């Protein structure tokens, strides 16, 4: 069962300005330990790749905070929510500390998608309850559609 959906659209230029203003402190405030390693690797190869990585993580964490209904207040903390890649390349939400315990108590699991293009980074998060009752299968369109009258029937009306 879906318990929350969150989206965020982030202006990469805004993240760049914050990074220029606050430097590494901004990165340390937003990214968790494993994300910082990836950010450093990407930034080392190309500053824009590091910037886009930071912007997509910022957007994903904003979207996650909306999906769980807390915004950015305890137990939601930037560094306790990491967006890491599985071996397949799919992004995944990895939680730590009080935030991990809070979500686990509710049986919640999150799915995330991130994207960036030009000056924009976006993210969408869906939070589901793992122990939700099974849903009935969706009806096919043939089961729910109102049949169209045939041509002869229309003329008779």
Automatic annotation (TrEMBL):
<feature type="binding site">
    <location>
        <position position="8"/>
    </location>
    <ligand>
        <name>Mg(2+)</name>
    </ligand>
</feature>
<protein>
    <recommendedName>
        <fullName>Holo-[acyl-carrier-protein] synthase</fullName>
        <ecNumber>2.7.8.7</ecNumber>
    </recommendedName>
</protein>
<comment type="similarity">
    <text>Belongs to the P-Pant transferase superfamily. AcpS family.</text>
</comment>
<dbReference type="GO" id="GO:0005737">
    <property type="term" value="C:cytoplasm"/>
</dbReference>
<dbReference type="InterPro" id="IPR037143">
    <property type="entry name" value="4-PPantetheinyl_Trfase_dom_sf"/>
</dbReference>
<dbReference type="InterPro" id="IPR002582">
    <property type="entry name" value="ACPS"/>
</dbReference>
<keyword id="KW-0963">Cytoplasm</keyword>
<comment type="function">
    <text>Transfers the 4'-phosphopantetheine moiety from coenzyme A to a Ser of acyl-carrier-protein.</text>
</comment>
<dbReference type="InterPro" id="IPR008278">
    <property type="entry name" value="4-PPantetheinyl_Trfase_dom"/>
</dbReference>
<dbReference type="GO" id="GO:0006633">
    <property type="term" value="P:fatty acid biosynthetic process"/>
</dbReference>
<dbReference type="InterPro" id="IPR004568">
    <property type="entry name" value="Ppantetheine-prot_Trfase_dom"/>
</dbReference>
<feature type="binding site">
    <location>
        <position position="62"/>
    </location>
    <ligand>
        <name>Mg(2+)</name>
    </ligand>
</feature>
<keyword id="KW-0808">Transferase</keyword>
<dbReference type="GO" id="GO:0000287">
    <property type="term" value="F:magnesium ion binding"/>
</dbReference>
<keyword id="KW-0479">Metal-binding</keyword>
<keyword id="KW-0460">Magnesium</keyword>
<feature type="region of interest" description="Disordered">
    <location>
        <begin position="136"/>
        <end position="157"/>
    </location>
</feature>
<dbReference type="Pfam" id="PF01648">
    <property type="entry name" value="ACPS"/>
</dbReference>
<keyword id="KW-0276">Fatty acid metabolism</keyword>
<keyword id="KW-0443">Lipid metabolism</keyword>
<keyword id="KW-0275">Fatty acid biosynthesis</keyword>
<dbReference type="GO" id="GO:0008897">
    <property type="term" value="F:holo-[acyl-carrier-protein] synthase activity"/>
</dbReference>
<feature type="domain" description="4'-phosphopantetheinyl transferase">
    <location>
        <begin position="4"/>
        <end position="118"/>
    </location>
</feature>
<keyword id="KW-0444">Lipid biosynthesis</keyword>
